[in-house]
Amino acid sequence: MSVSFRRERVEGEILVPSDSGYEPRRTGYEMRWDPLTSQACKLLPESNLLPSSDFDLAGFGDQSKSWCPFCAERVERVTPRFAAAISAEGLFRRGEALCFPNLAGYARHASVSIYGPDRHFLPLDQITQRLVADNLQTQVDFCRSACRADGEATWVSLSANHMLPSGSSLFHPHVQGAVDPFPTTQQAISAGVPGELVGEYLAAERSMGERHIASSGEIEWLAAFAPAGFHDLRAFLPRFESPERLPELVVQELGRGLAAALQLYAELGCSSFNWALFGAPRPGHVLNLRLVARAGLHESYRSDVTYFERLHGTALVDQAPELLAERARPFFNT
Ligand SMILES: [Zn+2]
Question: Ligand 1 center to residue 73 CA distance, Å?
Fold first, then answer.
């Protein structure tokens, strides 16, 4: 088994209008393939495809505060409860965080966790390690209980849509959990990647250094070689197979890394993101997290998901992962 970092330069030529008719201009991009899954990516020259946004999110959030089901006045009254086999109290609590069932049945056991009932507006630069870790811990507790109660539902994931451009239907920031009998497409693809290949990939990234961001005990953070979206950051937890198996200390460590990544996103002018953490119920599999930024709300809003991402499974991005890693390192090394 040998890991490969394949990249190919592709060039073309067009004729552009000029004072003397048309003159030739070279075009070009770099094609990259993910070393673990072969998922392709087109890396374009930098052209501001993800502009930073100064949209008034606080003002926008005020519009939904009077009816938001996750706000303090309503959350404990209007949200559903888990069956007793999963939680005696019907929900999971940690610090400010609360985790309750998702009314939308996205999985056989589906959960929603909020950072806190008073966190209706939570800009990225205010997302601290404590807020992330407490939120993650409620989800890990939920997943562990759901797995214990239902031996058929072995595919576990935690994921987040943050702010409307990411697909979130509610403004109030939250994370979602799923414990299901079937894998999603990416869970199935990821489960087919041998743990030894992941080990080779991480060793190669550590030795090359250009995309490696930090090693924090149990977790390796990298900029993705072939991004699946903008500012694609990846975390690998080689000693763990699935989210429900994470001990509290590692949840804390993951919370610290995610909070650092979101501080970086804030500095890059981002306000919306998606992440997903999943593994596989198989010995030797490596639990991993992927985080991408989404376009911010803007007067001239453009979705960052085009036919390339939706239908070709090939991200079109204009930022070099090597530069992202360089910008990320100070946030992880404080
Ligand atoms: Zn709210």
Answer: 9
Residue 299 has pLDDT above 80, yes or no: no
To the question of pTM greater than 0.85 for the whole model, the response is yes
Centre of ligand 1 from the C-alpha of residue 120, in Å:
4
**Fold type of domain 57-332:** HIT family, subunit A (3.30.428)
Q: For residue 65, report the distance from its CA to the centre of ligand 1, in Å.
A: 5
Q: What are the contacts of 122-126 at 24+ separation with CB within 8 A?
A: 122/173, 123/57, 123/58, 123/266, 123/271, 124/262, 124/263, 124/265, 124/266, 124/270, 124/271, 124/273, 125/262, 125/263, 125/266, 125/267
Q: Which residue ranges make up each domain of the chain? A: 7-43, 57-332
Strand partners, 10: 29
Distance 274 CA to ligand 1 centre (A): 19
252: helix, coil or strand? helix
